[in-house]
Amino acid sequence: MYAFKFIKEFIANPGDVGSIAPSSKQLASQVVESARVPQANVVVEFGPGTGAITEIIIPNLRPDAKFIAMEINADFVKVLRERFPSITVHEDSAANTPKYLKQLGAEHCDSIVSGLPWAFFNEGLQDALLDGAVDALRPGGMFATYTYITSYPMPSSVKFRNRLKARFSEVGVTHVIWANVPPAMVIWARK
Q1: What gap in Å lies between CA 71 and CA 154, rounded to an integer?
Q2: Using CB atoms within 10 A of its CB, is residue 148 exposed (0-12), middle (13-18) or buried (19+)?
Q3: What is residue 71's three-state secondary structure?
Q4: Which residues pair with 137 in a beta bridge?
Q5: How are beta strands 184-190 and 137-148 bridged, if at all?
Q6: The model's pTM
Q7: Secondary structure (3-state) at 65
């Protein structure tokens, strides 16, 4: 049911959704590990979609951790609230994360997990979202997202990685996760 909803949204808004299928459990697990979610006190998810990565984040959260999800698509927000009634989902741009962290009583977060389709975004939107991420993260905090192997060499993907390198102290890429459609790699960054 959630996969069908995801495909429907991809057809309607390919630039916002970015993929024909939700992330696999293997990719989601690698993103969660790269973002160091199990060690984090405050975790934020950018663009959870129908919750493929959210489903892996939740059991990996520390018992006392705080978690919020930032999703701009109203249909996905509805799905997330139905699937995960115990989490807080804000229907807003991830660029506004610092505002919601303050409402949560947190100055910064330790970890950001992103499912956003960065290569589809124009440079201005990438800058706004990355600036929001940097503002939200504590020093040493971790940011993790992913890219498909088909997108990795594209100029827009190279420019995105350069934007990360300009904002973060360390940036890396994991091995290819072949058990995903299409295969993907996780890009991680430390503030």
Answers
A1: 26
A2: buried
A3: coil
A4: 109
A5: antiparallel
A6: 0.88
A7: coil
* Radius of gyration in angstroms for the set of CA atoms belonging to the chain, rounded to a whole number: 15
Query: Would 16 be classed as within a structural domain?
Result: no
Domain enclosing residue 142, as ranges? 2-11+22-190
pLDDT of residue 67: 98
Q: What mean pLDDT is reported for the chain?
A: 89
Residue 57, in any domain of the structure: yes
Rounded to an integer, the average pLDDT of 35-56 is 96
* Mean per-residue pLDDT, 93-104: 96
- Residue 158 covered by a domain: yes
What CATH number corresponds to the domain at position 71?
3.40.50.150
Rounded Cα gap, residues 19 and 180, in angstroms: 11
Q: Is residue 96 part of a domain?
A: yes
The pair of structure tokens assigned to 54 is 């959210």
Query: Which two tokens mark 119?
Result: 């290569």
Peptide bond into 153 cis (omega under 30): no
What are the CA-CA distances from residue 161 to residues 62, 143, 165, 166, 186 (Å)? Answer: 30, 12, 6, 9, 12
Q: What is the pLDDT of residues 111-126, one digit of tens each?
A: 999 999 888 889 999 9
Is pLDDT at 168 greater than 90 in this prediction?
yes
94-98 mean pLDDT: 97
Number of independent structural domains in the chain: 1
Rounded alpha-carbon distances, angstroms, from residue 72 to 47, 60, 80, 94, 152: 7, 24, 12, 8, 25
